[in-house]
Amino acid sequence: MVIKILNILGNILLRPFREHFVFLIIFFILATSCYIIRHLVIEINLIAAFTTAIHCFNISYIVTLLIGLIRPNALRNTVQGVLIAFAAIDFALNFYCICQLKYFFDADIALLILETDSNEAREFVSAMIPKWIVLTEIAIYLFVLFLWWLSTRSNFNLGKKTSIMALGLIVLCIAVNLYCWNVWRDGPIARFSEIPQYDIPSDLNTYYSHPQLSFKENNHFPDNVVVIIGESFARNHSSLYGYDKLTNPRLTELKNNSSLFTFDSISSPAPTTAISIRDMLSIFNQSDESNKEKKWYEYPSLIELMQVCGYDCYWFGNQACANKNNGTARSFAYACDRRWFLQKEGVEETNDRYDIILVDTSYQYIKMLSSEKNHFIIYHMLGSHFNYRMRYPKEFAIFTENDYQKDPQNHREILSSYDNSILYNDYVVGRIINMFKETESVIIYLPDHGQVMYRNSNNPDYYAHGRDNDPLSFALGIDIPFFVYASPLYQQKHPEMMERIKYRQDNPKTWNSDNLPYFIMDLIGVKEINGENIKPKSVLN
Ligand SMILES: [Zn+2]
Question: For residue 27, which of 72, 75, 88 has the smallest C-alpha distance?
Answer without folding.
Answer: 88
